[in-house]
Amino acid sequence: MRVHHITAPTLCPLSATLVNGAGGLFRRGRMVCHCLVIESDDGLILVDTGLGTADVADPKKRLGTWFNTIMGPPRDPAETVVGELARLGLRREDVRHIVPTHLDLDHAGGLSDFPEATVHIFAPEHAAAMAPASAMERARYRAVQWSHGPRWLLHDRAGETWFGFDGVRALSGAAEVLLIPLEGHTRGHCGVAVRQGAGWLLHAGDAYFHHREMDPEHPTCTRGLAIFQRIAAVDDTQRRQNQVRLRELGRDHKEVQIHSAHCPVEFDRFAEAAQVESASGMPVKTTPAPGLL
Ligand SMILES: [Zn+2]
To answer: Which terminus of the chain, N or C, has less C-beta within 10 A?
Structure first.
């Protein structure tokens, strides 16, 4: 089993200083859409799909004015999962399973590029996306992104635990993939845990946005991202509690590598490790404590 870290795509949000902490207040920043491509004996598995080819082809219709203005998505299909699969020499038709952390427009856009895949989703997130209950939910969920009729497979809690968190088994067998409910950012937001040898990789989705939020001693966040997270949360108390628990997990369990969906610093760390690995032919373990850069 092999895990590839890709960004699909890299966004250019307003204000590098407010988002990244440096680079100029009036210059655009850098934000990745960190997705995982897992090669397993049961075909390819995607964790999150970022923006898809239809989104970059028609961003106005698919993403809306606000997202385009604030986030600055590229128009290049090479920067979607489809483009990244081609770059990796993998076949788009081999994608069998998709496990989204949640269905916000910057995570579900690629679903329509893989209509044959089974989409494993936490039931409360599916319910929220199918019946948005507020103006914010109507803005963040874009029905056009699933108008092709995905093969949803809804998952609910079943009493399993994972390092003290609730765990919901999405896949077992060729690959072990768990949904870890971390509600707060959205009604059914989850992390996705992927077993890697003796350890685990946890894609924490939008549970946090900046690598320093996971610093066990002095967690901090840039001003723009702190405000955005507070505004975007459907339950901010729950969102903050999740961050405390994730920090403790990262501090106490070095065998779990945690990363968020949008932090470029974390993404670069994984990409760098992958380069070293492919140059040496030896698997490289990335630094397990993402808060300490
Ligand atoms: Zn997001």
So the answer is: C
Domain presence at residue 292:
no
Tens of pLDDT along the chain (293 residues) come to: 899 999 999 999 999 999 999 999 999 999 999 999 999 999 999 999 999 999 999 999 999 999 999 999 999 999 999 999 999 999 999 999 999 999 999 999 999 999 999 999 999 999 999 999 999 999 999 999 999 999 999 999 998 999 999 999 989 887 899 999 999 999 999 999 999 999 999 999 999 999 999 999 999 999 999 999 999 999 999 999 999 999 999 999 999 999 999 999 999 999 888 877 766 666 555 444 333 33
For ion ligand 1, residues whose CB falls within 5 Å: 106, 206
Centre of ligand 1 to C-alpha 170, Å, is: 21
281 Cα to the center of ligand 1, angstroms: 33
113 burial via Cβ count (<10 Å: 0-12, 13-18, 19+): buried
Residue 289 placed within a domain: no
Ligand 1 centroid distance, CA of 280 (Å): 33
Q: How far apart are the CA of 211 and the centre of ligand 1, in A? A: 15
Count of structural domains within the chain: 1
Nearest residue to 11 via CA among 99, 87, 80: 80
- CATH code (residue 18): 3.60.15.10
Is residue 18, in this structure, part of any structural domain at all? yes
Q: Which domain holds residue 160?
A: 2-280
Q: Is 116 exposed, middle or buried (0-12, 13-18, 19+ CB in 10 A)?
A: exposed
